[in-house]
Amino acid sequence: MAKTSGSQPKKGLWSYVTNYSARVFFLLIILQVPLFRITCRSGTCSTPLHVTASQLIASGTFPLPVVKALLYPGAAVNGLVNNFSVPRWDDLLTIYNLTAVKEASPVPDLQRLEVLAGSYFSIAGSLIGLLKPGRMSMFGTLLIVWGLVKEGILTKSAIPDPDKSVYVYPTMLIAVICAFMSVKYDLKKVTKSTPRPIATPLKSSSKSKLK
User: Any transmembrane segments, and where (predicted)?
Assistant: First the structure.
């Protein structure tokens, strides 16, 4: 009978890197660390969560308390850092300029669908990545980067307004690295070399050659 070892195999180094990268990416998203600056339905947005919140409130697809619950951690941290105070729950929409977002023009969001879709995927990927890191965060981040690059190319020839121009913060590079590092790769399958069968001549052909 084969002996079974009582101790389970240890996790590889890449598994720890993946888990910590997913947690760092989650903190970047949920604490609303500024990644970019772009015009949106609520005015100027600098985080994927702000872009998504303005769209969700305008469309009414999600309950308002759920959207405010996503915004509150970042608002609390920003309030403590800047004003040494925690904002009130009822003041969240005013802080993020979301009180009249339903009457605002949807043109900014429609012109930047890649950034909007990438923000959705980034938020969903950061939440799911706490349980099981996957490719959703990487896909969402790539969509945001592509949307920002396309917006920069389209407005390069014109003279943009400094307040409405697209700007990418250095923290965006950290988000991209964490999104890529949070993807789990099965290194055993990649490095495992499968033996290829050696072609052997058929018996009939060998007999015919002997005749």
Answer: 20-40, 166-183
